[in-house]
């Protein structure tokens, strides 16, 4: 069983939730209370959301990038802009979370194989178009921002110093799935990410992911989001090689009834996640059958993920055991209800 340094971990959370511009942390007022033991404080604070006023600064940074691009592009095709990232699903654990601005060629689209293409477009090369989109973006943003990173295979990024926010600009094509064609539901509209070194298109459904994660979060009264935030904090504080996508998929697979949040039941949500991880570790068929939130991928199929899931479960179980020793104290339960 792991041993957790709660003093260090609480400091880590405080650092992640510190806004340099406002010189304040987004932590609960109860964070400094001596009535709540450190283990329970870590459990509760790990699950708390980032206040919307801090997330709004991230949206502001992306909106500024979009305006700079839109005002200065000289291209033969229109662009559409969408956003993605943990801020959109309210599962971010840092004030300064990275944020994706999807910049999409909006003159034509690709179709799922087998669908009839009644609006074929052959006037220009998609490879040339998306290269022009990226090249012009780099030129425009370098004239405005001091820090522009062009090393990404699928994106470039800027750092807005005044807002202290990083924005990734991701270049894409539209991808229309059969389900989108049938339903006209924007959540089933896909994109092709573009890997520039290899000129490879990678299909993704970010809007379905966002919609489904948010729907589950709302249905469970923020319980599933709390579970995702908890796992992300455990990952950030440990040497654990799992992506946010893996962690989100683990929580998303749990039944809603086990994740419903009511004041003071953080430990029950943590136990439900531990139970799910136990199945994932011990039943390969169960693990390999877990779908991503958008339903198109099996993110836990690879066997080499199991040791990493064991690591994070070990830390989670230690937190559960440590917290269970004290959480039923009337004074602590009262303090937790107002956390």
Structure, described:
The chain has helices at 6-16, 38-47, 52-72, 86-89, 126-142, 178-183, 206-219, 223-236, 244-252, 266-282, 284-289, 306-324, 330-337, and strands at residues 18-19, 24-25, 79-84, 99-111, 148-149, 155-160, 165-176, 189-195, 200-204. The chain is of the alpha+beta class and 339 residues long. It has two domains: 6-49 and 222-337, no CATH class; 54-205, Beta Polymerase, domain 2 (2-Layer Sandwich). Strands 3, 4, 5, 6, 7, 8 and 9 form a seven-stranded mixed sheet that branches. The protein has a two-stranded antiparallel sheet with strand order 1-2. The chain is globular.
The total count of helices amounts to 13
Question: Strand-residue fraction?
Answer: 15-25%
- Tell me the overall shape: globular
| Tally of strands | 9
Helix content: 40-55%
Largest sheet: 7 strands, mixed
User: Unreliable runs, pLDDT <50, ≥5 residues?
Assistant: none
Supply the number of structural domains. Answer: 2
Structural class: alpha+beta
- From N to C, what is the helix and strand string? HEEHHEHEHEEEHEEHHHHHHH
If you average the pLDDT, what whole number results?
94
Cα-atom Rg, whole angstroms?
Answer: 22 Å
Distance between the termini: 28 Å
Quick summary:
The chain has 339 residues and is of the alpha+beta class.
Features:
single chain; 339 residues; alpha+beta; Beta Polymerase, domain 2; globular
Topology record:
Blueprint: H1 6-16, E1 18-19, E2 24-25, H2 38-47, H3 52-72, E3 79-84, H4 86-89, E4 99-111, H5 126-142, E5 148-149, E6 155-160, E7 165-176, H6 178-183, E8 189-195, E9 200-204, H7 206-219, H8 223-236, H9 244-252, H10 266-282, H11 284-289, H12 306-324, H13 330-337
Parallel strand pairs: 4-7
Antiparallel strand pairs: 1-2, 3-4, 5-6, 6-7, 7-8, 8-9
Helix pairs in contact: 1-2, 7-8, 8-9, 8-10, 10-12
């Amino acid at each position: 069983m792991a041993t957790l340094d709660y003093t260090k971990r609480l400091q880590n959370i405080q650092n992640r939730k510190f806004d340099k511009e406002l010189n304040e942390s987004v932590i609960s007022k109860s964070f400094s209370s001596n009535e709540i033991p450190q283990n329970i404080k870590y459990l509760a604070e790990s699950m708390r959301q980032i206040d919307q006023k801090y997330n709004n600064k991230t949206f502001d940074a992306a909106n500024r990038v979009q305006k700079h691009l839109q005002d200065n592009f000289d291209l033969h095709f229109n662009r559409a802009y969408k956003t993605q990232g943990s801020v959109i699903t309210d599962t971010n654990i840092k004030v300064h979370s990275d944020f994706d601005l999807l910049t999409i060629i909006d003159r034509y689209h690709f179709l799922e194989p087998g669908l009839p293409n009644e609006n074929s477009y052959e006037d220009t090369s998609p490879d040339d178009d998306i290269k022009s989109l990226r090249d012009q973006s780099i030129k425009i943003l370098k004239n405005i921002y001091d820090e522009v990173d062009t090393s990404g295979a699928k994106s470039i990024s800027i750092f807005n110093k005044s807002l202290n926010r990083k924005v990734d600009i991701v270049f894409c094509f539209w991808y229309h799935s059969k389900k989108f064609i049938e339903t006209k539901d924007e959540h089933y509209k896909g994109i092709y990410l573009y890997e520039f070194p290899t000129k490879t298109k990678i299909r993704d459904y970010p809007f379905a992911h966002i919609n489904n994660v948010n729907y589950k979060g709302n249905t469970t009264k923020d319980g599933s989001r709390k579970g995702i935030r908890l796992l992300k904090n455990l990952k950030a504080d440990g040497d654990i090689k799992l992506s946010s996508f893996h962690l989100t998929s683990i929580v998303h697979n749990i039944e809603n009834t086990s994740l419903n949040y009511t004041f003071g039941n953080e430990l029950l949500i943590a136990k439900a996640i531990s139970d799910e991880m136990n199945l994932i570790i011990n039943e390969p068929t169960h693990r390999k059958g877990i779908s991503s939130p958008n339903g198109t991928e099996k993110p836990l199929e690879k066997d080499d993920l199991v040791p990493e899931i064991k690591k994070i479960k070990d830390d989670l179980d230690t937190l559960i055991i440590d917290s269970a020793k004290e959480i039923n104290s009337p004074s602590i339960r009262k303090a937790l209800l107002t956390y």
